[in-house]
């Protein structure tokens, strides 16, 4: 396919996917969505998306729902819930927790942002202040419970999804508090030990902690409504057959929340909970994300034909890397090392009690950075040992490893490679900004999100960019110096490289989740959060593999692909993470 046709397809996917996402989230234009900001406690600027159904005005106020996401997510993660609540006539505030998305940090401050979100929703004249529901997933559940505790007359009912009472500052529930609470805790939730003190989520119904909240000494019956809605003591437990983040992709989990608010709030339109459309927005966001990634290639190809960058274009020579059993041994180490060390190396900052700083302000990103540094150093040592110990007879030079031009480091060309990489990524970023402005959407699927950066986010991005750049330079040198195979079509090489980059993480996820999904617990029970984070390595490393192969074959050097990989990964990760330093 020609460059122009690929460009047209990429733009069509971005536009078509974003238009589909906008159409679904606005119910064909019937729901107005506003990107709102307000000032909360301690001068903290808060962020949220406000969903206003058709016909709702100050003269005709509607019931309201605060919907809050979990840790290292953002307001858009609650789209499925927010869209369906709004379709049923509720005004919905999908808020960014403190330190997440576009809300000021640090994370965990001000009751995770729950009280400020409830205060703001109650202040709107289009909302009936005596008819408000609270919904939160995971840490968002703690946020809404803290809001309920601080404003006992400010809400009417609560749904906590994959969450619990009595955890991380959320008060313990009793049979009288909070008012009318539904617990949606999935059958395979990874956090059952943390949340309800049971090793298996399927045993939550017999948890003493849950039974106390339901006012019973017997095992809680799933789906049964305990207590009285009129008295505010109603309780119910639901267990959809998904994992913790699976609540966001579950018609069942979302349906339970719809049903609970229909029972406990007044003013909904009664639309059946089985009628759900949110999944089409998810599909539209995915199409747009694919379009953005696809856009990188024609933009890069066209820029390489410009006079300024034309001298970077080159065809790779025959590889002088490992062959036969040596290739398989190198590939095994390359594949296994990153996944096998993830849980250990990411603990280095916490083991050494690193506090967040203005330079490295995101705890999770800092942990990923340290993992990348250690893996990069080990990989570099192994590569150098292989070069001097096993690859001498191939007479490989730095040119063959994609580092030099005719035996020389040409810093002018390295600088051009950096500029070219920046312009390509900038083109993709501009499409995202345009989509966010016109459609109030971004590019995402499930737990993987590509979001525009805030002004502070750009600063954070620059803080982490250099370590990730060095990591991807090492990765690229190994891929195209040691592991590049001979006489492959680009498509085949992309498949091999992507396989090398993600196979270890696929194995890690399988090790984690096969025991859980077959009736046991996680393979590494203490790594509930990082097991979920591991899912995000799959799309990230897939993008890295595609980009690095394409631009290595276009330039015969590792620089453009490495720089682009670092920029893309650093942008995607930092824009989606929680900020723990108080700037």
Structure write-up:
The protein has 583 residues and is an alpha/beta fold. The protein has two domains: 33-276, Rossmann fold, CATH 3.40.50; 281-391 and 409-576, no CATH class. The protein is 50% helix and 10% strand. The chain is built from 16 helices and ten strands. It has helices at residues 3-25, 79-87, 114-123, 139-150, 192-196, 208-214, 251-264, 278-304, 324-345, 348-351, 363-390, 411-439, 455-482, 490-517, 528-555, 559-576, and strands spanning 32-39, 45-52, 62-68, 91-95, 127-137, 157-161, 181-184, 235-238, 443-445, 448-450. It has an eight-stranded mixed beta sheet with strand order 1-2-4-3-5-6-7-8, sandwiched between helices. It has a two-stranded antiparallel sheet with strand order 9-10. Helix 4 links the parallel strand 5 and strand 6 (157-161). Helix 8 (278-304) packs antiparallel against helix 12 and helix 8 packs parallel to helix 15. The protein is globular, with a radius of gyration of 25 Å. The model has no long low-confidence stretch (mean pLDDT 96).
List the helices and strands and how they pair.
Layout: H1 3-25, E1 32-39, E2 45-52, E3 62-68, H2 79-87, E4 91-95, H3 114-123, E5 127-137, H4 139-150, E6 157-161, E7 181-184, H5 192-196, H6 208-214, E8 235-238, H7 251-264, H8 278-304, H9 324-345, H10 348-351, H11 363-390, H12 411-439, E9 443-445, E10 448-450, H13 455-482, H14 490-517, H15 528-555, H16 559-576
Parallel strand pairs: 3-4, 3-5, 5-6, 6-7, 7-8
Antiparallel strand pairs: 1-2, 2-4, 9-10
């Amino acid at each position: 396919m020609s460059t122009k046709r690929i460009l047209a397809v990429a733009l069509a996917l971005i536009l078509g996917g974003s238009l589909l996402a906008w159409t679904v989230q606005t119910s064909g234009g019937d729901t107005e969505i506003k990107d709102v900001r307000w000032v909360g406690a301690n001068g903290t600027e808060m962020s949220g998306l406000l969903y206003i159904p058709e016909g709702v005005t100050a003269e005709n106020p509607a019931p309201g729902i605060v919907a809050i996401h979990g840790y290292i997510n953002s307001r858009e993660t609650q789209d499925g819930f927010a869209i369906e609540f709004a379709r049923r006539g509720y005004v919905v505030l999908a808020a960014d927790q403190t330190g997440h998305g576009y809300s000021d940090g640090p994370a965990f401050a001000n009751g995770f942002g729950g009280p400020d979100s409830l205060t703001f929703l109650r202040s709107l004249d289009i909302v009936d202040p005596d008819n408000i529901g609270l919904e939160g997933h995971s840490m968002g559940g703690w946020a809404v419970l803290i809001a309920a505790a601080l404003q006992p007359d400010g809400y009417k009912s609560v749904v906590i999804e994959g969450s619990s009472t009595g955890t991380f500052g959320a008060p313990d529930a009793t049979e009288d508090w909070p008012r009318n609470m539904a617990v949606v805790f999935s059958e395979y939730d990874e956090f059952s030990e943390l949340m309800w003190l049971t090793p298996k989520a399927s045993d939550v119904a017999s948890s003493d902690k849950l039974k106390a909240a339901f006012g019973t000494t017997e095992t809680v019956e799933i789906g049964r409504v305990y207590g009285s809605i009129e008295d505010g003591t109603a309780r119910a437990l639901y267990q959809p057959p998904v994992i913790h983040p699976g609540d966001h992709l579950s018609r069942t989990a979302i349906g339970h929340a719809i049903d609970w608010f229909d029972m406990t709030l007044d003013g909904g339109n009664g639309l059946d909970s089985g009628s759900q459309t949110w999944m089409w927005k998810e599909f539209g966001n995915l199409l747009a994300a694919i379009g953005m990634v696809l856009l990188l290639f024609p933009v890069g190809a066209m820029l390489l034909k410009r006079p300024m960058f034309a001298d970077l274009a080159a065809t790779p020579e025959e590889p002088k890397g490992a062959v036969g059993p040596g290739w398989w041994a190198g590939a095994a180490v390359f594949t296994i090392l990153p996944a096998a060390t993830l849980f250990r190396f990411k603990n280095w900052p916490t083991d050494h009690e690193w506090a967040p700083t203005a330079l490295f302000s995101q705890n999770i990103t800092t942990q990923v950075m340290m993992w990348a540094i250690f893996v990069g150093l080990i990989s570099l040592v192994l590569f150098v040992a292989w070069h001097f110990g096993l690859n001498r007879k191939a007479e490989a030079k730095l040119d063959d490893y994609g580092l030099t031009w005719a035996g020389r480091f040409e810093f002018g060309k390295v600088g051009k490679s950096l500029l070219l990489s920046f312009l390509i990524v900038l083109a993709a970023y501009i499409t995202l900004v345009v989509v966010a402005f016109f459609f109030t959407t971004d590019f995402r699927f499930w737990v993987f999100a590509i979001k525009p950066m805030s002004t502070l986010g750009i600063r954070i991005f620059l803080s982490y960019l250099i370590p990730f750049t060095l990591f991807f330079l090492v990765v690229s040198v190994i891929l195209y110096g040691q592991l590049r195979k001979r006489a492959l079509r680009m498509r085949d090489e992309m498949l091999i490289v992507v396989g090398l980059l993600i196979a270890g993480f696929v194995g890690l996820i399988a090790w984690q989740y096969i025991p859980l999904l077959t009736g046991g617990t996680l393979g590494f029970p203490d790594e509930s959060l990082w097991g979920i984070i591991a899912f995000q390595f799959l799309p990230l490393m897939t993008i890295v593999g595609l980009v690095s192969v394409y631009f290595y074959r276009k330039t015969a050097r590792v620089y453009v692909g490495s720089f682009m990989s670092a920029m893309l990964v650093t942008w995607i990760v930092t824009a989606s993470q929680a900020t723990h330093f108080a700037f």
